[in-house]
Amino acid sequence: MKRISHFFGMLLVTGSAVSSAYSQTAETALTQWMEGNFRQAKNTAADAIAADKNNALAYLVQAGGLLYEGNSTAAQTAIEKAIKLSPNNVLFQAELAECYKSQNNMPQAKRQADKALGLLRSPRSGMEYFMRASMENIQSKPDEALADFTKAIEMNPRFVRAYAMRAGLYFDKNQMDLALTDLSKATDINAQYGYPYFLRGWIYHNQQQYDQAIAEYTKNIKYDLRVSDSYFNRAVIYRIQKKTDLAIADYNKVLEFTPKDADVYGNRGNIYYDQQKYDLAMADYNKAIELSPTKANFYVSRGNVYRVKQQMDLAFKDHNKAIELNPKYSYAYQARGEDYYSTKEDEKAMVDFKKAVELDPRSSYGFMYMGFIHHNKQQFNDAIACYTKAIEYNPNNLDAYNNRAAVYDALGNTKQANLDRKKYSDLGGTIAASGTSGKKILYPGSTFDPTVAKAALSRGVATIRGRACSKYDGRRFDAAGAKVILMPVTPYLDEWYKLREKKESKTTWVYMSDEAYKYRIEAVADAEGRFVFEGLKPGKYFVQVIHSFNQLKTAKVYDGSNSYQNGPVMQTTNYYHLQDYTVERSARFEKFVEIEEENENKKITLTSGLIKSCAL
After folding, report:
1. Of 1.10.10.10, 3.40.50.720, 3.50.50.60, 1.25.40.10, which CATH number belongs to 365-434?
2. Is the Cβ–Cβ distance between 204 and 216 less than 8 Å?
């Protein structure tokens, strides 16, 4: 959040208005004002008034100086004296409109501008064009105002105020090169005129040329009186540059000018939040809310502190309040989504994150948190899409790079994972050295659709009966007590199976998502390895059993020998004993089974090969 000021303090005169009736001193004051020398102009006008209390032009210049200082009430008093002396003078009527504008009384300012424009239909001098342009500006007629400011400059090339006003209009039209040209011209004529530095700083600020912006804001502070906005904006940049002490010092300076500025407390609180000084942040957010209880962003910030402190009821309360105050505030939905995410209410969190990116399609962190949820659900392609969006809208979002790297790992894309980790490191992320077992775990990339699986497992009347056995050393071992699972064949399962067939090895395991694995039916094999799945619908199913057991075996163990002489022959007798031992066995048996008829009774055998004695 940064600020832009439009303090112009309009002073105007027609060719016929400048006459000996106003005195040479008042005319000098007006020239000083035109060239941006407001302090001199105000002092010169005071001298003219001291010499002649009926010098209406001097009151006009005095009003302009007071507007420059931000004292619109005193300025209005001064201009009303001028109007009393000369009720139909367009100069005075126009300046009164500027006073109303400075007081943020735009309805009255527009009515007064209408009156002034009615008095000036055919400008004849540079000042008259300037006057009309200023009133057109109040009436939100930028094209007309731009043309009239240009005419004023043509007729008076040293009209610094006209350059400044026109630069402001170019800025509003996003014609920054033209705005910068006018601002340079203004400072060439008067290097101590402060406002062009502020507007130039604002332009550099928006262009993220932060060092140049700071230099311009600093010059504005040096030469201008109304500099709180420059301190404020400079503090915003210092926070971006992580120069937190300088930022806090500038916010403190703003509070010297405007001690009841809620935005300053809010922004300073954000710095304390960054520094994990949560009590100081909370105090500033409380003050901001006290001063401006209808601003949604302060409630969002305070709610975030409550979340850090694990005071979730208060966090939800503040974030709900923010949404109530501003239903179109994207960050409020993101913050509440983070509340739901931290309390493991992922479905509610996803609703809020989607709303956040709907309201702000460039919400990097909204997309990143959506990626977190897809990632946690092992919906890897969706997670990559969200992390990629987060990076697109904020190339410095290092958490998005780090998490996308983990997803690429899960999909076996080691090259892209390493590129993302390097980017994460380049942006300042810390990756510690680590060791692993050397095993990889891969997942399908697509998102599992539970509705398809749920429909496939709805109740039917078909049955699958089976028996599972292993064969070792010519013997049959029934899968007694083994768990047998049945899963409907979905596009996701098909992808998982093909990936496993292609990638699985001693060093690579292929898993399916936790959610996909939930949609299964389990049976336990009896003492002979028999199992039954009932109530099935026609369709294709995947049946799997892991048969793990210890096989009892017996071995002849050598105990020693005895040798003796039997006549001319030496004889040796070896001694053995039998010893039992176990061998761990584990085998995975799988089969795709298709039920074609509603009442079908399908029989299957799960073995490592042909075992006739294992048949049902």
Report:
1. 1.25.40.10
2. yes
Bridge partners of residue 583, in order along the sequence: 551
CA-to-CA distance for 563 and 547, rounded, in angstroms?
Answer: 48
DSSP structural state of residue 605: E
Instruction: Indicate if 365-434 has the same CATH topology as 194-259.
Output: yes
CATH entry 3.10.580.10 includes domain 194-259: no
- What does the alpha-carbon distance between residue 410 and residue 257 come to, in Å, rounded to a whole number? 56
Structure tokens at 165: 């006003």
Nearest to 186 by CA among 199, 176, 173: 199
Instruction: Choose among 304, 330, 331, 326: nearest CA to 317.
Output: 304
Find tokens 């009133």 and name the residue: 135
Helices first, then strands: H and E counts in the chain? 27, 10
Q: What single-letter DSSP state applies at residue 174?
A: T
Domain ranges of the chain: 194-259, 365-434, 450-614
**At a CB cut-off of 8 Å and minimum separation 6, what does 30 contact?**
11, 13, 18, 41, 57, 60, 61
Give me the count of residues in the chain. 616
Nearest to 275 by CA among 310, 232, 304, 244: 244
Please tell me the pTM assigned to this model: 0.77
pLDDT value of position 15? 35
Closest Cα to residue 485, out of 450, 445, 453, 517?
A: 517
User: Which CATH number does the domain 450-614 belong to among 2.60.40.10, 3.50.40.10, 2.130.10.10, 2.40.70.10?
Assistant: 2.60.40.10
d(CA 163, CA 480) in angstroms, rounded, equals 93
The pLDDT score that the predictor gives to residue 7 is 39
Instruction: Please give the pLDDT value at position 111.
Output: 94
Residue 591 burial (CB < 10 Å; 0-12/13-18/19+)? Answer: middle
| Rounded CA separation 223/534 (Å) | 87
Which parts of the chain have pLDDT scores under 50? 6-21
- Closest by CA to 547, choosing from 476, 463, 601, 473, is 476
- H or E element that contains 465: strand 462-472
Task: For the beta carbon of residue 46, count every other beta carbon within 10 angstroms.
Answer: 16
3-state secondary structure of 173: coil
Contact (Cβ atoms closer than 8 angstroms) between residue 495 and residue 503:
no
- Smallest CA-to-CA distance from 423 within 448, 403, 438, 440 is with 403
Distance CA 308, CA 285 (A): 14
Q: Which has the closest alpha carbon to 142: 165, 120, 160?
A: 165
Angle ∠(542,544,547) on CA atoms, nearest 5: 170
Per-residue pLDDT at 20 = 42
The partner residues of 478 in beta bridges, in order of sequence, read: 469
Alpha-carbon 95 to chain mean position: 44
Q: Which one, of 123, 63, 56, lies nearest residue 97 by Cα?
A: 63
| Residue 529: per-residue pLDDT | 94
pLDDT of residue 477: 92
CA-to-CA distance for 280 and 301, rounded, in angstroms?
13
Write phi, then psi, for 277 (nearest 5 degrees): -95, 75
